[in-house]
Amino acid sequence: MADVAKLNQVTKGFRDGEQYHQVLQAVDLQINRGDTVALTGPSGSGKSTLLNLIAGFEMPDSGEILLNQASTSHWQDKDWSHFRRHSLGVVFQQFNLLTPLNVKDNIAFPLSLTAQPWSAWCDYLVEKLGLLPLLHRQVEALSGGQQQRVAIARALAHKPTLLLADEPTGNLDDVSGKQVMALLCELAQESQTSILMVTHSEECAAFMQKRWHLSQGTVAIYEK
Ligand SMILES: Nc1ncnc2c1ncn2[C@@H]1O[C@H](COP(=O)(O)OP(=O)(O)OP(=O)(O)O)[C@@H](O)[C@H]1O
């Protein structure tokens, strides 16, 4: 099965004044097409850092990251933009919704970047995420849970090959959280989207096929 993301000996740390804080130590990982992975680990262990590296929001200190089997070592901003627009969906803790826009325009935004029209798939996502009554509301007027559902729809609108999600159900109640998890699994199966999801919830982790646990700079891999 083709890999969509691969890390070879990736090391990352941050300087804090005089001190250097090592977060990831020579990490080797691979996400194949259609894999769904729960990423767990204590607070501060580097889960968000790992997602940021794969999204190109941070650069590794050493090692190599391959995306869609291409090395990113010499990628420039335009290469990262191309990858994000065509292949990547992100749902991070800050939803980063576009506040002057309504729900529909927020969901359509990633499509507009590659000149794609609103599709039947978008209608399906809107319906599944319970956003139909909210489509023409301004996003800033929505609750945290509603905004989270908009962020999920926006991340999936262009059918990415890889979805990176940081606690994607953190603001949802139990029932809608489970619905969203079921939707993500359905998506992974139907369109072979791979998912790497940070979660502190055992229930959410159970929806994913694999489990990676990050601790003291290294990742332990558990296959179910
Ligand atoms: N831009 C940065 N500058 C300096 N230190 C950083 C930066 N980003 C992350 N860190 C540090 O790296 C470590 C890992 O942070 P990260 O946010 O990846 O952890 P996490 O596992 O996602 O934590 P949580 O579960 O609390 O969200 C922390 O000690 C954090 O302070």
TrEMBL record:
Name the UniProt record assigns to this protein: ABC transporter
Native source organism of the sequence: Shewanella glacialipiscicola
Family: Belongs to the ABC transporter superfamily.
Xref: SMART domains: AAA
Domain of life: Bacteria
Matches recorded under Gene3D superfamilies: P-loop containing nucleotide triphosphate hydrolases (3.40.50.300)
Domain ABC transporter: 5-224
Keywords on record: ATP-binding, Nucleotide-binding, Transport
Keyword presence, Transport: yes
